[in-house]
Amino acid sequence: MPVTPEQQAEIDALREAPRETLRTVSEGMERHLYVPHQVLDHGFVRVVDYMGDDAAICQAARVSYGRGTKSVQNDEGLIRYLMRHWHSTPFEMCEVKFHVKLPVFVARQWIRHRTANVNEYSARYSILDREFYIPAPEHLAAQSGVNNQGRGEVLQGEEAQRVLNLLREDAMRSYDHYEAMLAQDDNQQGLARELARMNLPANIYTQWYWKVDLHNLLHFLRLRADAHAQYEIRAYADAMCRIAADWVPAAFAAFRDYRMDAVSLSAQAVAALKRRLAGEVVTQENSGMAAREWREFQEVWG
């Protein structure tokens, strides 16, 4: 269960007690505030606080004194200009704080994005729950033969079941030993929590608060919501994309057009494309591109 009954009761109480404010409010984000969005089997992502909206981006760019100084159409045009020309500081004026429940191995990928403020659940102070990420069968894949950090074909039949059984059995056995080491009775003092945790597997769930500005959030999403990202972290990024699209719709639309769905070309690729348009036959050998870049070029341009 991603959210306990006690946590859900707290969320319901928060949402049932709205307060008047003079702060900027994003109606789209208000619908997400405090609500957990389930990710994977036991995980979730939810917004616990935020600051700013699309208008705040424009206000910062113009250094204006209030809302309504320009039309909505002009605001969208300005946001698209800022995104297109890689202006970052106006987007840094918006911030969001997420509460995330995620497997430890996903957290170790996630934490490489260092431009955020993070506070994680302490397994030195508290005891972790018996919750582990076990992949759904359709996400249980063999090693890719062409990508050293990717997946290949989905495992089938007995082999898939064998792997799932090993994952479950190892996780449960590790947690049983974790509890046994912590146990205190007449015969043993019990191992310290900070030491007992070392025996836990990387698919156990942890939780953290992750606060980030919009510019760095979009950078995170550009990498982790990409089709080449690992499925497990991409599942969280996809949920956060949906939240961001409601929070700052103009900024997220510009981000999708100029970052997520756009193509970046090297000088060699631009030259090759121009030569093709001029009717010249361009090959990898005469393109000036390495084999891998040439494959990526062909994936987009044929």
Automatic annotation (TrEMBL):
<feature type="binding site">
    <location>
        <begin position="213"/>
        <end position="215"/>
    </location>
    <ligand>
        <name>FAD</name>
    </ligand>
</feature>
<comment type="subunit">
    <text>Homotetramer.</text>
</comment>
<keyword id="KW-0521">NADP</keyword>
<feature type="binding site">
    <location>
        <position position="219"/>
    </location>
    <ligand>
        <name>FAD</name>
    </ligand>
</feature>
<dbReference type="InterPro" id="IPR003669">
    <property type="entry name" value="Thymidylate_synthase_ThyX"/>
</dbReference>
<dbReference type="GO" id="GO:0004799">
    <property type="term" value="F:thymidylate synthase activity"/>
</dbReference>
<comment type="pathway">
    <text>Pyrimidine metabolism; dTTP biosynthesis.</text>
</comment>
<feature type="binding site">
    <location>
        <position position="89"/>
    </location>
    <ligand>
        <name>FAD</name>
    </ligand>
</feature>
<keyword id="KW-0545">Nucleotide biosynthesis</keyword>
<keyword id="KW-0808">Transferase</keyword>
<keyword id="KW-0285">Flavoprotein</keyword>
<feature type="binding site">
    <location>
        <position position="224"/>
    </location>
    <ligand>
        <name>dUMP</name>
    </ligand>
</feature>
<dbReference type="GO" id="GO:0050797">
    <property type="term" value="F:thymidylate synthase (FAD) activity"/>
</dbReference>
<feature type="binding site">
    <location>
        <begin position="109"/>
        <end position="112"/>
    </location>
    <ligand>
        <name>dUMP</name>
    </ligand>
</feature>
<dbReference type="GO" id="GO:0032259">
    <property type="term" value="P:methylation"/>
</dbReference>
<dbReference type="GO" id="GO:0070402">
    <property type="term" value="F:NADPH binding"/>
</dbReference>
<dbReference type="InterPro" id="IPR036098">
    <property type="entry name" value="Thymidylate_synthase_ThyX_sf"/>
</dbReference>
<keyword id="KW-0274">FAD</keyword>
<comment type="function">
    <text>Catalyzes the reductive methylation of 2'-deoxyuridine-5'-monophosphate (dUMP) to 2'-deoxythymidine-5'-monophosphate (dTMP) while utilizing 5,10-methylenetetrahydrofolate (mTHF) as the methyl donor, and NADPH and FADH(2) as the reductant.</text>
</comment>
<dbReference type="Pfam" id="PF02511">
    <property type="entry name" value="Thy1"/>
</dbReference>
<keyword id="KW-0489">Methyltransferase</keyword>
<dbReference type="GO" id="GO:0006235">
    <property type="term" value="P:dTTP biosynthetic process"/>
</dbReference>
<dbReference type="GO" id="GO:0050660">
    <property type="term" value="F:flavin adenine dinucleotide binding"/>
</dbReference>
<dbReference type="GO" id="GO:0006231">
    <property type="term" value="P:dTMP biosynthetic process"/>
</dbReference>
<feature type="binding site" description="in other chain">
    <location>
        <position position="197"/>
    </location>
    <ligand>
        <name>dUMP</name>
    </ligand>
</feature>
<comment type="similarity">
    <text>Belongs to the thymidylate synthase ThyX family.</text>
</comment>
<feature type="binding site">
    <location>
        <position position="120"/>
    </location>
    <ligand>
        <name>FAD</name>
    </ligand>
</feature>
<protein>
    <recommendedName>
        <fullName>Flavin-dependent thymidylate synthase</fullName>
        <ecNumber>2.1.1.148</ecNumber>
    </recommendedName>
</protein>
<feature type="binding site" description="in other chain">
    <location>
        <begin position="120"/>
        <end position="124"/>
    </location>
    <ligand>
        <name>dUMP</name>
    </ligand>
</feature>
<feature type="active site" description="Involved in ionization of N3 of dUMP, leading to its activation">
    <location>
        <position position="224"/>
    </location>
</feature>
<feature type="binding site">
    <location>
        <begin position="112"/>
        <end position="114"/>
    </location>
    <ligand>
        <name>FAD</name>
    </ligand>
</feature>
